[in-house]
Amino acid sequence: MWKQAIEDALQKTKANIERFGDLFPHVSENDVYHLNPNTDWTDGFWSGILWLGYEYSGDKAFQEAAQKAVASFKQRLEANVALDHHDIGFLYSLSSKAQWIIEKDENAKQLTLQAADVLMKRWRPKGQYIQAWGPEGDEHNGGRIIIDCMMNLPLLYWAYEQTGDAKYKEVAVIHADLSRRYLVRGDDSSFHTFYFDQENGEPLHGGTAQGYSDGSTWTRGQAWGIYGFALSYHYTKNPLYLETAKRLARYFFDRLPQDDVVYWDFNAPVNEETKRDSSASAIASAGALELLEHLAADDADRAYLENAIQRSMTGLVKSYATIGKPDAQGFIERGSYSVRGGNAPDDFMIWGDYYYLEALVRMEKGIKGYWYE
Q: The domain 2-365 is classified under which CATH number: 1.10.10.10, 1.50.10.10, 3.60.20.10, 3.40.50.720?
């Protein structure tokens, strides 16, 4: 089943290389991807798909398209286009860092280190956190962190490993500790965002940007936490990060609905109109696969996670994948970007496609994503 799903995704990717040209997919409308000239936070996921396709198949068409995408990311960084946010890790881990991991291209390594320096500009010494959105001092977003940032920290951990400069790891660890303390709740659910006083770092309150309510648990945020804390454990071996990833995973997978693919928020009222988020299920599955790497053979959570991954991925492949729809641009249907904002609430998400493929090739061939070497 996994191999068939991979082959289907790679066939669609081949078609999309021609379809997209020099542009980058974001989310879809009426099953057609919106494209941009490498200006959005999501553009790394397309290059990540291309690198996964090359690693899995050895097909030079994927490699050439991926290299071309990395060149675009070089131009973007040099021109400083739309980089004033924390998602630099999503952009450059899956483009230039992926190229370094696969090809050991020195220029790709240097580009990725430059990207890490861009991310470091989001560090706020007064508050001791990485600011997610907006300029420093921004009235609304100036003191705000979000759980998504856990997936951007690997860029900083990697930069420390490559350079030996402790500042990268120190910032990543401080931010991970803060996220663990304030974004993860006592019942193992999570806030999407948390606010701090910009002058002294005093905690203020939790909130959300895309969840059902400030106190609800946005499923994609929970999935970011599973994978992000597992990766922080990989880099630091801090057992608290491993424990946190396991807790978040159990909360997520304990709440799978009948078809094993989650709704967009665990607290959203469920009826015939409730939106799903297939991308959240794909991210959580990929994160759980990473988590498995760090569990002993006799760990009580191993069998639980193995079963959860099988359920989640089987649900995606059997009920949400576009297998049998050769003209489809996306791999999995019914992702949601922002249900509250009415922005692509039931469409293809390029990050959903990426994590779906990452999970599949990891299960089939042991190929992981590009969060570490």
A: 1.50.10.10
d(CA 63, CA 276): 33
Among 148, 277, 301, 347, the active-site one is 148
Catalytic annotation, pick one of 87, 260, 347, 353:
87
Q: Establish whether 87 is a catalytic residue.
A: yes
Classify residue 322 as exposed, middle or buried by CB count within 10 Å of its CB (0-12, 13-18, 19+): buried
Residue 28 and residue 75 in contact, taking contact as beta carbons nearer than 8 Å: no
In the annotation, is 260 catalytic? no
Q: What is the pTM of this model?
A: 0.98
Domain locations in the chain as residue ranges: 2-365
Classified as helix, coil or strand, 193 is strand
Kindly indicate the confidence band of residue 26, based on its pLDDT and cuts at 50, 70 and 90. very high
Quote the percentage of the chain above a pLDDT of 90. 100
Token readout for 238 is 């801090």
pLDDT tens readout for residues 339-352: 999 999 999 999 99
Distance CA 367, CA 370 (A): 9
